[in-house]
Amino acid sequence: MAATIDNSSAAQATKKKHLGIPEAVFVEDVESFMKQPGNETADAALRKLDEQYQKYKYMELNLSQKKLRLKSQIPQITQTLEILRHMQKKKDTTESLETHFLLADNVYCKASVPPTDKVCLWLGANVMLEYDIDEAQALLEKNVSTASRNLETLEDDLDFLRDQFTTTEVNMARVYNWDVKRRGRENILKSLDKS
After folding, report:
1. For the stretch 141-166, what's the b/e string if a residue is b when 16 or more beta carbons lie within 10 angstroms of its beta carbon?
2. Tens digit of pLDDT for each residue in 19-65?
3. Cα–Cα distance measured from residue 128 to residue 94, given in angstroms and rounded to the nearest whole number
4. pLDDT value of residue 16
5. DSSP of the chain, one letter per residue?
6. Mean pLDDT score of the chain
7. What is the mean pLDDT of residues 95-119?
8. pLDDT at residue 166, rounded to an integer
9. 161: number of CA atoms within 13 Å, CB side?
10. Which pTM was predicted?
11. Could you give the CA distance from residue 82 to residue 76 in angstroms, rounded to a whole number?
């Protein structure tokens, strides 16, 4: 009984892990698969499998875009975090921090920043908030860990999705080959009937 509970909880954890991505079921017995409702002909079954395959492609495109966004976001957050740590070291001194900041693409401006314990963070969607350096550092550290965790989850989902591609492609090949064999048998029977 305990083994059954452990197996079912592991299966539930896997389903929750890849929530939103339906699992492709491997077609072991093509004959019984073709007898299921909606699979009256091989073309209908292949259309259904191709539709499922196209849905997986669409999901892959969306997940890949999210992955690219996260991969570009993590270095930006890390760089901002490094700047904050440097500012935190300099906030107790009296000398100002000499730096260059980005005005536009490839256009920088020289600046002198006096020691401060406040920073403004651009949160996106035309929102900028002022934080203490310690609060900003805690927020950015949390954002980096969340983004890294999300990236790992996305990579796991993409791996799972690739497995679904393979299973669907194999299913399509098996149904196609079954249909070729079936037509070959029908042609042989027709030629025997004519003779």
Report:
1. eebbeebeebbeebeebbeebeebee
2. 688 899 999 999 999 998 988 899 999 999 999 999 999 999 999 99
3. 27
4. 53
5. -HHHHHHHHHHHHHHHHTTT-PPPPP-S-HHHHHTSTT-SSHHHHHHHHHHHHHHHHHHHHHHHHHHHHHHHHHHHHHHHHHHHHHHHHHTTSSSPEEEEEEEETTEEEEEEE---SEEEEEEETTEEEEEEHHHHHHHHHHHHHHHHHHHHHHHHHHHHHHHHHHHHHHHHHHHHHHHHHHHHHHHHHHHHHH-
6. 87
7. 88
8. 95
9. 22
10. 0.74
11. 10
Contact, 151 vs 70, CB < 8 A? yes
**Residue 101: pLDDT over 90:** no
Inter-CA distances, 40 with 25, 36, 45, 186, 187, Å: 19, 8, 7, 17, 20
Provide the percentage of residues in the chain whose pLDDT is more than 70: 90
Q: Residue 122: is its pLDDT beyond 70?
A: yes
Structure tokens at 3: 């083994």
Look up residue 7 and give its two tokens.
């197996």
CB atoms closer than 10 angstroms to residue 168: 22
CA dist list (Å): 130 to 6, 111, 116, 127? 49, 19, 12, 10
